[in-house]
């Protein structure tokens, strides 16, 4: 099986579409990488594979190798300095400018790669019109033939909404092997605050209970809107529905995540997030670092480096910290 190199497997689930599972998966992966972990992302949302777009690698193609398929690299392992300079694992990187002789704080960044049906389709707009058995076969192929690098710390599996063929095939394949079953640490469940979304996501929590998948926590997405023109964060979809649901099912609540147009611009256009002075998200002033004009102008950086300027990054540092604590508690 292609999962023998993976140390920890985490599912990202939701009973409803459009709640932002792929966005949450992307930010979990970037944050884990920024903690120095090597990360893989497997996209099994076969009819709507959006992970390649989130990571800005839509035009990449899968490489075949003896024994299976090689994941597409988002970035290699490297070191990120406070000034944004990066150094790869082999020591190559940008040289410091003259006068920058002082030692800069270093952040190790783990390698990140992903696999998706989006890399295999001839055109990204091609419709995937498959019956259940073909979906099941594709999920099993992804699980058995993707050659993840040895010692991969975390594999995040982005799933489609609901509890259908892909989910059943995924769990049957993971749980039939004792070693892989032991490395399945649990699931992060995503919802939005509205009652209509929460009612659907409750079905996913019941699915986890019936199949024996541990819930590592609930993330409430779209709980607010970070205005790009003022310093307000407005709760347009209300807030708190996810936390109430987590309490009802006695599972951990990981946190609330607002809609941030700057994150959308980062994904769609590669622009570094910038916020008006005084912008506060979940009690944090996220505009402090954005006032440096040199930092604002420097855009050639990688996705993972630019993400550190996003208002959502501190929130996901907390969320990932809780997820890792819950994984450790369950070992």
Automatic annotation (TrEMBL):
Residues that hold ATP according to the record: 15-22
Feature: compositional bias, Low complexity: 82-91
Source species of the chain: Phyllosticta citribraziliensis
Subcellular location: Cytoplasm
SUPFAM superfamilies membership: P-loop containing nucleoside triphosphate hydrolases
Residue numbers spanned by region Disordered: 78-108
Function: Component of the cytosolic iron-sulfur (Fe/S) protein assembly (CIA) machinery. Required for maturation of extramitochondrial Fe-S proteins. The NBP35-CFD1 heterotetramer forms a Fe-S scaffold complex, mediating the de novo assembly of an Fe-S cluster and its transfer to target apoproteins.
Protein name per the record: P-loop containing nucleoside triphosphate hydrolase protein
């Amino acid at each position: 099986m292609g999962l023998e190199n993976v140390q920890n497997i985490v599912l990202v689930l939701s009973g409803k579409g459009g709640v932002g599972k792929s966005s949450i998966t992307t930010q979990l992966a970037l944050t884990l990488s920024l903690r120095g972990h090597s990360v893989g992302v497997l996209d099994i949302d076969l009819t709507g594979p959006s992970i390649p777009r989130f990571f800005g690698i839509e035009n990449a193609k899968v490489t075949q190798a003896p024994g299976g398929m090689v994941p597409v690299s988002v970035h290699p392992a490297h070191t990120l300095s406070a000034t944004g300079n990066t150094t790869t694992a082999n020591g190559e990187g940008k040289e410091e400018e003259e006068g920058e002789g002082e030692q800069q704080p270093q952040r190790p960044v783990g390698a990140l790669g992903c696999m998706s049906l989006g890399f295999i389709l001839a055109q990204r707009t091609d419709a995937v019109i498959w019956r259940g058995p073909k979906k099941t076969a594709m999920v099993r192929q992804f699980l058995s033939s993707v050659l993840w690098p040895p010692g991969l710390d975390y594999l995040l599996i982005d799933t489609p909404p609901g509890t259908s063929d892909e989910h059943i095939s995924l769990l049957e394949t993971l749980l039939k092997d004792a070693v892989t079953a032991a490395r399945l640490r649990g699931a992060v469940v995503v919802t939005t605050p509205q009652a209509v979304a929460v009612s659907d996501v409750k079905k996913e929590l019941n699915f986890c209970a019936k199949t024996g998948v541990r819930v590592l926590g609930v993330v409430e997405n779209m709980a607010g809107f970070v205005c790009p023109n003022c310093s307000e964060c407005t709760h347009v979809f209300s807030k708190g529905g996810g936390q109430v649901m987590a309490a009802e099912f006695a599972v951990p609540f990981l946190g609330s995540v607002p809609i941030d147009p700057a994150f959308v611009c980062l994904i769609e256009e590669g622009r570094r997030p910038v916020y008006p002075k005084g912008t506060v998200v979940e009690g944090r002033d996220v505009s402090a670092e954005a006032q440096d004009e040199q930092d604002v102008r420097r855009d050639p950086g990688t996705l993972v480096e630019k993400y550190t300027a996003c208002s959502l990054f501190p929130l996901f540092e907390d969320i990932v910290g809780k997820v890792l604590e819950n994984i450790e508690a369950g070992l």
